[in-house]
Amino acid sequence: VDALLADLAGITGGEHLLTDQDMTGGYTTDWTRRYRGPARCVVRPASTEEVAGVIEACARHKAPVVPQGGNTGLVGGGVPYRARQDNPPVVLSARRLTRLDPVDTLSGQVTAGAGVTIAELRAHASRAGFEYGVDLASHQAATVGGTIATNAGGVLKMRYGGTRAQVLGVEAVLADGSVISHLGGIEADNTGYDLGQLMVGSEGTLGVVTAARLRLWPAEPPLLTLLAGVGGIEEAVTLQAAIRAAVPGIRAVEYFEAPGLALVRRHAGLPAPLPEDYPGYLLAEVAGSEGNAEDYAERLSVTPPLQKASVAMDAAGRAALWAYRERHTEAISAEGIPHKLDVAMPLSQLAQFRAELDEVIAKTGGRAIVFGHIGAGNVHVNVLGPAPQDDAVDNAVLRLAAAHGGSISAEHGIGHAKAALLHLSRTPAEIAAMRTVKTALDPDGILNPGVLLAPQESK
Amino acid sequence: VDALLADLAGITGGEHLLTDQDMTGGYTTDWTRRYRGPARCVVRPASTEEVAGVIEACARHKAPVVPQGGNTGLVGGGVPYRARQDNPPVVLSARRLTRLDPVDTLSGQVTAGAGVTIAELRAHASRAGFEYGVDLASHQAATVGGTIATNAGGVLKMRYGGTRAQVLGVEAVLADGSVISHLGGIEADNTGYDLGQLMVGSEGTLGVVTAARLRLWPAEPPLLTLLAGVGGIEEAVTLQAAIRAAVPGIRAVEYFEAPGLALVRRHAGLPAPLPEDYPGYLLAEVAGSEGNAEDYAERLSVTPPLQKASVAMDAAGRAALWAYRERHTEAISAEGIPHKLDVAMPLSQLAQFRAELDEVIAKTGGRAIVFGHIGAGNVHVNVLGPAPQDDAVDNAVLRLAAAHGGSISAEHGIGHAKAALLHLSRTPAEIAAMRTVKTALDPDGILNPGVLLAPQESK
């Protein structure tokens, strides 16, 4: 008899403790299918108290815990991976933490449970006349807790600042089972260390987020969406700057390239977006009231590439243009198991990085599909070809980004995938300080071991 | 011979090591004159390396260190206070860390040393067509490092989010003398714990900030500034919401009351701002281009209290209106040593808090001058009358704020002043987690002991 399982069943009820591999498969394999590993069990607590009980029990049994939201992560941070076979982790699924309070319209805030999906949160905010400032392609599955743990970016990051900027406070369970809660939503609040901000982006290694107090924004319907062809990423950088200078209220600026477009069109059966073909494409969305439409269209049309752009001003037209960008992920996955490399760098470095990228990829025998949130200097390099467990291409691309002053993780996080490469973006002193914080808050290392901070070699 | 002083003189040169009380007085007494204490010395390093050397030497000698910026703090967080007489602290003045890099106009960012003043930073940004998103009355003296350590708010907080929202990364010296540096300015950067955000608001207890990478905003000149009379704080809350709904681009909304206005007029020799007297006043500033002026004036004049408002559209007129608000602090200090209580709460609670405040103050024999950043729910309660060392009124006002769901520190921080009352705003589990982080990063407790976290009683 497994004493831990008995304890966990006592907390959540046996029906929310899964041990059969037929039932746990969806929790132990990640979305890319690149990361997977055995789990001791999957436990699905329904309240903060149950999460605290689960963590307390795991701490008592020294059982590692992998917190999981919608399991849409791309770096193996939410699934068991390379776990020691003698002590496989407990997967703690937070999807049943579905608390969703009414929108506080005076403050423009809402409290949401970790298991609420981004799509649910956005719809909830919308009904009250507000918008949640994060959106991403996986919004039907990605959760509040998971996006906080990974500090998810998404297409609205340049407008609203990404997940970190939305978080006014969190409720979380620490490694000892204690609950820290700061959901009061006071905008001006300087009362000691911001533990909530420390949790943002910590990838489940410091605590399990159970709820958050989130900022909302007055609803800002898109006015016009446009798709323009460009000669490549350098022209895209210039064009996005021109668009930002020409009109206010830019919600998003996205970039993709001809090979990705070809995959998307084939996979989704879509027509060509423009009469001519181009090496690269820029998708931009601008907010404003209908009174601005004519003025904005005129201001934008001064820029030559936009004169040939496809422009949408209604929901159906917008969705049709966005599909070319948003369906990249599924189209790529339909081709095989991609290496998904998520880097960012100063805008001034993007063109040179892109120029050197093809050679680096070619050496690995792969082919690259490049797209991303160009307004934030963030490109997703998807590589098809190399075997899932072959890290050579990951190493090469991340080192190239670092050589251009870039970050090896723009918005996906470090996970298992990049833990051993963290030194490319952070100094030894920074990593040492991170380990100090981790060890202090989780001395037995039960929270998501191996994620973000690589296991230290003992000699 | 004091071996520590010899070590410090070797690092900064003897001319930047002050021990004579005639020289150290300006560093050992705070701006309010309420907090003061003996210092072993004042040391003024001029580079990050010198700061690291100073901290390493202090760590070796187990000497407590009080980091100090412009010494404009109001809670005793930047001066020695109630220090043990047998081991008075070293005051580390960061004012000589005056690095100020050129503005990166492509990214809208700048790197600034901890000793750069907010006024210098704002002027530097302005020359490049940008604005730094924080401004406060003490901007001539308050520094980048000090405002990061305290997460300063100020009048632009409702527009740009306060200091935390400007910080892309920091360089800081930790308690062991190691330097963590993250000044790359990558907007999309999810590579582990955000140590910079952990430093923001930590009041010098986790590290000494030496420089920061800061976000800037496209310059947004004020279009119109207005001062309106209101019946009190409840009407001010309603009016600020109406202004925010009527026009975009609200930069600031400030509130003050008749007793404070009377003090300011007497102290500064100013005329009455409006033909009639009112119990309260609302100052609002709106950005926009000149083309918006007529439209905005029309939209705002629909609200009755604004029909009688005084409106300024040029720099001199704006300065004249702002003087009524900004000169509160000096006018109050000219009357005596005030208790400066800085609280915030949900906007829905402000009126009830204000209604109960006078009775609470009256019981202490004091008189209250109330003003603040009402758009952020932040009011400054200044109390004249009670002796500086008498904490009764502080206790009473902070407890009243907490009873209304408020924060006992909106933007000033906790310092020495409120360390013993931190439990009013944070739970035991939160305070325990803060202590865990503090102890891990500063095991000997040399960084700003007694600030933020009260000394634990040993039994």
Question: What's the oligomerization state?
Answer: homodimer
The helix content of chain A, as a percent range, equals 25-40%
Strand order of the largest sheet of chain A: 13-10-12-11-15-16-14
Number of strands of chain A: 16
In angstroms, what is the radius of gyration of chain A?
Answer: 22 Å
Describe the SSE topology.
The structure is a homodimer of 459-residue chains.
Chain A: H1 3-12, E1 17-18, H2 21-28, E2 41-43, H3 48-60, E3 65-68, E4 90-93, E5 109-113, H4 118-127, E6 130-132, H5 144-150, H6 157-160, H7 162-166, E7 167-173, E8 179-181, H8 195-199, E9 208-218, E10 222-230, H9 233-246, E11 250-257, H10 258-268, E12 280-287, H11 293-300, H12 304-307, E13 310-312, H13 315-326, H14 328-333, E14 339-344, H15 347-363, E15 367-373, E16 378-384, H16 392-403, H17 428-441
Parallel strand pairs in A: 2-4, 3-4
Antiparallel strand pairs in A: 1-2, 5-9, 6-9, 7-8, 7-9, 10-12, 10-13, 11-12, 11-15, 14-16, 15-16
Helix pairs in contact in A: 1-3, 15-16
Task: Describe this protein's structure.
- The structure is a homodimer of 459-residue chains.
- Chain A has 459 residues and is of the alpha+beta class.
- Chain A has helices spanning 3-12, 21-28, 48-60, 118-127, 144-150, 157-160, 162-166, 195-199, 233-246, 258-268, 293-300, 304-307, 315-326, 328-333, 347-363, 392-403, 428-441; strands at 17-18, 41-43, 65-68, 90-93, 109-113, 130-132, 167-173, 179-181, 208-218, 222-230, 250-257, 280-287, 310-312, 339-344, 367-373, 378-384.
- A 7-stranded antiparallel sheet of chain A has the order 13-10-12-11-15-16-14, sandwiched between helices. In chain A, strands 5, 6, 7, 8 and 9 form a 5-stranded antiparallel sheet that branches. Chain A has a 4-stranded mixed sheet with strand order 1-2-4-3, with helices on both faces.
- In chain A, strand 7 and strand 8 (179-181) form a beta hairpin.
- The first copy, chain A, starts with a helix and ends in an 18-residue tail after the last helix.
- The mean pLDDT of chain A is 94.
- Chains A and B meet through helix 7, strand 8, helix 8 and helix 17 of A and helix 7, strand 8, helix 8 and helix 17 of B.
